[in-house]
What we know:
Oligomer: homodimer
CATH superfamily of chain A: Phosphoribosylformylglycinamidine synthase subunit PurS
Structural class of chain A: alpha+beta
Strand content of chain A: 35-45%
Largest interface: A-B, 34 and 34 residues
Strand order of the largest sheet of chain A: 2-1-3
CATH architecture of chain A: 2-Layer Sandwich
Number of helices of chain A: 2
Order of helices and strands of chain A: EHEHE
Number of strands of chain A: 3
CATH topology of chain A: Mth169, Chain: A
Shape of chain A: elongated
Helix content of chain A: 25-40%
CATH class of chain A: Alpha Beta
Amino acid sequence: MKARVTISLKNGVLDPQGKAIENALHGLGFDQANDVRQGKVIEFDLGNTSKEDAPAAVEKMCTQLLANTVIENYSIELLD
Amino acid sequence: MKARVTISLKNGVLDPQGKAIENALHGLGFDQANDVRQGKVIEFDLGNTSKEDAPAAVEKMCTQLLANTVIENYSIELLD
Lengths: 80, 80
């Protein structure tokens, strides 16, 4: 079983990296791209963790290490 | 219309950031997490770009700026 955790900054939190990408896109002529936000995606294998235990385990990983819940949101996808 | 571009390192490319996360997870007792890979996700608004033009435009942004196609794969999702 595999897990994919997507971590993005909460609304209202400044995203200088996203802003830099936006400026670069505009510089290349892609003026239609706006409101650029950059996040992280972390993928990993869960070995033979059961389908029942996986959501709680990954949730715990997110709150303890992967995401800074003060400024970041996370979403979890479990893939077979 | 919004676009989400997910960028991940190609298989075989070393991922020291993923390795660091893996070690930290093991240190916290999450021994089931293995083969950790970290990627990026870039979300942005495409304004009133039409559904027909959007895929080609985002593809062009990826190859020109967002992804380093020598070592990275990218996937594009378009959201209404």
